[in-house]
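Project standup — Tuesday

K.O.: blocked on the structure for the chain from last sprint. Re-posting the sequence here as requested.
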Amino acid sequence: MKFYAVARGRKTGIFTSWPDAERQVKGFAGARFKSFKTKQEALAFLADPADTASTCSTKNLSDTPKKRKNGRRQQAGHEYPENAVMVYTDGGAIGNPGPGGYGVVFETGETFSGGFNLTTNNRMELLAVIVALEALEGETRPICLHSDSRYVVNGINKNWAKAWKRRGWKKSDGTPAMNPDLWQRLLNLLPGLNIRFIWVKGHAGDPLNEACDHLANSTARMSGLPDDTGYLKSRIDSR
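H.V.: unblocked you, prediction finished:
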């Protein structure tokens, strides 16, 4: 199977058949696309289509975890357990609030994306994590989840979300904690999982983070996105 990555066309993303990909680029001025043998190579191309080196081999993904002599993996200053599931998430909204999307990329190549016609950056960051963990329900291996959202990572690692929940979804100053519907969904997914939340710097050249960003942004620009009912309800409740 080949993977056809369309970085610029009527619809961007990865396609598994040439006729589908061709419809996105044929007659489209400035179209940019390329075929690959692996999905990971296609993702690297989408993350940086101007970087021709990234289209040659997955070994060019210099931030991909590597084996160490002690049997553990290391990436960007972090050590990972053997056989860890590596997943990256990202989300954002154009205008914030505005049309938004999220992206999830596993090191193995699986991807998930989605979006809404009106939402916020933080909601999409949270939803990306939720979608990733829903896909990992019942996973017994260690999970290393990477996000460039300090809001999400600190919300779990510093127990902000649990504290907000204990106070009835209030912050320490008594003001409402935002996005309780998504935080509750996320907290419900954590029991039973061996998971680490790791913050990564966004737009810093990490191929999988950049691929997530591309998925999120391209989805946010799609037409016909559904309503984010949780966000709409929060606006009504705050009036």
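K.O.: great, moving the ticket to review. The chain has a mean pLDDT of 84. The domain at 85-238 is CATH 3.30.420.10 (Nucleotidyltransferase; domain 5).
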